[in-house]
Write a structure and sequence with these properties.
It is found in: Cytoplasm. Its cofactor is NAD(+). The chain has 3 domains: 318 residues, Rossmann fold; 111 residues, Dihydrodipicolinate Reductase, domain 2; 32 residues, no CATH class. It has 14 helices and 18 strands. The strands form 5 sheets. A 6-stranded parallel beta sheet has the order 10-9-4-11-12-13, with helices on both faces. It has a 4-stranded antiparallel beta sheet with strand order 1-2-3-18, with no helix packed on it. Helix 1 packs across helix 4, helix 1 packs across helix 13 and helix 7 runs parallel beside helix 8. The longest helix is centred in the middle third of the chain and has 19 residues.
C-alpha cells in the first residue's frame, strides 16, 4: 500500500500484519404486498481484515505457448526490464495499458479545494505488482516461448528481438490432450501431450504444480486456463453432478474435459483456478469440490473487446429508457483461437458466452420488456487467416425509441485480441490473490470467513460470469467495476462511492471540511463593457466582480 495513504478513522486499525476495518453494510429488502412494495432498509456490522504482506506469486497458464500466454509473459518481461523499441510511429515503452489495476484510477475523496483526489486503483490495498509474477505452464505444443511468440505475430519485431533471449529458454510442460473436445485442426500442434489414464494425467498436473512451487520459491500458485475453447461437456447424473462422482469418473475414464481435469488438479492442490474460455469447465461436481476444499474458482471467458463494449452500450441504452430490439455481432479473426472456433461445437461455446451478456440488463427493465421478451441476438465468428490476431468486430444495435421510431447504432472495432486479453489475465490473478488475503467477520461471530469459493467479484473481467448458486448475475460494466471498487473501499472502512456530491448541490454547505468553502451566493456571470462574459474560476464569481 502506498505509504502516503492512511485512513484517519478510529474504526480502522493498522497492525504490522493486517488492516482491520469496521464497516456498516447497508442494504434494502423489498416485499410485494398486492400493489404495494414495502421497502425495509437494514444495516449489518462487519469487520474486514486484510493481510498486508504481499506473497510471491506464481501463475501457471494452461496454453502457455498460445497467443495469450506468450503475449502476457512477454509483456511482464518487457515491463520488468523497462524495454523500449521503435516502430514506424516512434519509440514505444513497455506499459500495462488495459489493466484495471495498473492503468486506471479511483476517487479516494475530495481535497481541501473540493476537487476529487484520484489514485491508481492498485494503491487502495496492498497488491502484487505484475512485474513480480513468476510464470510457468503447460501446452500441447512443445515450441519454446520465444518461437511461439514469433508464431503468434502479436508483438512488433524489434521488441521480439529484445525479448527472445529471455523467452527462448522457457518451455511449456506437457499438457492434457483429448481430441474430441477441441477442433480437429489443432492436431498438428499436439506434440507435447501427457500419456496414461485420465487419473494419471491429473496426478501429473498436481506433480507439476508442486514442482513449480518448490523450484521457483513462490508462496502461492494460481492456475489459469487460456488454452483452446472446448465444446460443452454434457451434464450427466452420476458423472459430474457431484464432487464424489466427478472424482470417480476421472478414475474410471468417463467424459471429463481437459479444462475440468486441470480444475480438479488445481483444487486438490489448493490453488485458485480461473477459466478464461467459454466452455462449461465448472460442472456441478467441480464447483462442489472447490467449495469443499475452500478454494477459489472463477470464470468464464475473458471479456476483452466486442463483449465489453456490448456490456457498456446495452446498459447505456436500457438505462436511458431506449429499447434494444436487435443486436447483431459479427467477428472475423485469423489467430489460432479463430481457427479452433471455426469448428461448430467450439463456436457454439463462444456463441453462448457472447449472447448471454445482455440478459441481466434486459431483465432489469419490465417497462421496456415484458416477461420472457428479449432482443433478437445473433453472433457470427469467421476464420480469416490473413488478419491474424487483429480481430475485426462489427456490431449493429437497433432500438425502439419514442412514438414508434427506431434508432440504429453501427460500429466497427479492430481488436488486437491478445493485447486486450493479456492485461485482463493479469487483473484476474492479481484480484484473486488479493481476495485470498481478505476475510470478513459479521458482528456477533467469533470467526472470520473468506469470500465464497465461486469468486464472483471477478465478473468484471468475464463474458459469462460464474456466481454462487442463487446470487444475482450482473453483466453491466459499471456495476461490475463499482463492485470491485466498493469492496476494496470496505476493506479500508470507507463508504461506497455514491456519486451524489450533495455538498455541491445544496444552497448551503454542511461538511466540516477545512479550507473547502461552500458559498451561499449563486455564482453569476457579469457582462463586461466589451460585451464578453467574465470567465469563471471554480464556478464561483462574487457579485462585485472579484473571484473568490
Amino acid at each position: 500500500m502506498t505509504e502516503n495513504i492512511r485512513i484517519n478513522n478510529p474504526n480502522v486499525k493498522y497492525t504490522d500484519t493486517h488492516i482491520e476495518a469496521q464497516y456498516c453494510y447497508h442494504t434494502t429488502a423489498v416485499r410485494r404486498d398486492g400493489d404495494t412494495l414495502t421497502v425495509t432498509p437494514s444495516v449489518s456490522e462487519l469487520e474486514f481484515r486484510t493481510e498486508r504482506h504481499v506473497p510471491r506469486l506464481g501463475v501457471m497458464l494452461v496454453g502457455w505457448g498460445g497467443n495469450n500466454g506468450t503475449t502476457v509473459t512477454a509483456a511482464v518481461l518487457a515491463n520488468r526490464l523497462g524495454l523500449t523499441w521503435r516502430t514506424k510511429t516512434g519509440e514505444q515503452k513497455a506499459n500495462y495499458y488495459g489493466s484495471l489495476f495498473q492503468s486506471s484510477t479511483v476517487c479516494l475523496g475530495a481535497g481541501p479545494d473540493g476537487k476529487e483526489v484520484n489514485i491508481p486503483f492498485r494503491d487502495l490495498l496492498p497488491m502484487m505488482h505484475p512485474n513480480d509474477i513468476v510464470f510457468d505452464g503447460w501446452d500441447i505444443s512443445s515450441m519454446d516461448l520465444g518461437s511461439a511468440m514469433e508464431r503468434a505475430e502479436v508483438l512488433d519485431w524489434s521488441l521480439q528481438e529484445k525479448l527472445r533471449p529471455h523467452m527462448s529458454h522457457l518451455r511449456p510442460r506437457a499438457s492434457i490432450y483429448i481430441p474430441e473436445f477441441i477442433a480437429a485442426n489443432q492436431a498438428g500442434r499436439a506434440d507435447n501431450v501427457l500419456k496414461g489414464t485420465m487419473a494419471e494425467q491429473v496426478e501429473q498436473i498436481r506433480a507439476d504444480i508442486q514442482d513449480f512451487r518448490h523450484s521457483s520459491g513462490v508462496d502461492k500458485v494460481i492456475v489459469l486456463w487460456t488454452a483452446n475453447t472446448e465444446r460443452f461437456c454434457d451434464l450427466t447424473a452420476g458423472v459430474n453432478d457431484t464432487a464424489k462422482n466427478l472424482l470417480a469418473a476421472i478414475q474410471s475414464g468417463g467424459e471429463v474435459s481437459p479444462s475440468t481435469l486441470f480444475a480438479v488438479a488445481s483444487i486438490l492442490e489448493g490453488c485458485a483456478y480461473i477459466n478464461g474460455s467459454p466452455q462449461n469447465t465448472f460442472v456441478p461436481g467441480a464447483i462442489e469440490l472447490a467449495v469443499e476444499r475452500n478454494v477459489f474458482i472463477a470464470g468464464d471467458d475473458f471479456k476483452s473487446g466486442q463483449t465489453k463494449i456490448k456490456s457498456v452500450l446495452v446498459d447505456f441504452l436500457i438505462s436511458a429508457g431506449i429499447k434494444p430490439t436487435s443486436i447483431v455481432s459479427y467477428n472475423h479473426l485469423g489467430n489460432n483461437d479463430g481457427m479452433n472456433l471455426s469448428a461448430p461445437q467450439q463456436f457454439r461455446s463462444k456463441e453462448i458466452s457472447k449472447s448471454n451478456v445482455v440478459d441481466d440488463m434486459v431483465n432489469s427493465n419490465p417497462i421496456l420488456y415484458h416477461n420472457g421478451e428479449k432482443p433478437d441476438h445473433c453472433v457470427v465468428i469467421k476464420y480469416v487467416p490473413y488478419v491474424g490476431d487483429s480481430k475485426r468486430a462489427m456490431d449493429e444495435y437497433t432500438s425502439e425509441i419514442m412514438m414508434g421510431g427506431t434508432n440504429t447504432i453501427a460500429m466497427h472495432n479492430t481488436c488486437e485480441d491478445s493485447l486486450l486479453a493479456s492485461p485482463i489475465i493479469l487483473d484476474l490473478v492479481l484480484l484473486t490473490e488479493l481476495c485470498q488475503r481478505v476475510c470478513v467477520r459479521p458482528q456477533g461471530s467469533e470467526t472470520f470467513q473468506s469470500f465464497h469459493s465461486v469468486l464472483a467479484i471477478l465478473s468484471f473481467m468475464c463474458k459469462a460470469p460464474l456466481v454462487p448458486p442463487g446470487a444475482p448475475l450482473v453483466n453491466a460494466y459499471f456495476r461490475q467495476r463499482a463492485c470491485i471498487e466498493n469492496i476494496m473501499r470496505a476493506c479500508l472502512g470507507l463508504p461506497p462511492q455514491n456519486h451524489m456530491h450533495l455538498e455541491h448541490k445544496l444552497q448551503r454547505g454542511f461538511l466540516p471540511r477545512h479550507d473547502n468553502r461552500i458559498y451561499d451566493n449563486v455564482a453569476t456571470k457579469r457582462v463586461l463593457s466589451n460585451g464578453y462574459h467574465a470567465s469563471q474560476q471554480n464556478g464561483v464569481l462574487r457579485l462585485d466582480g472579484e473571484y473568490l
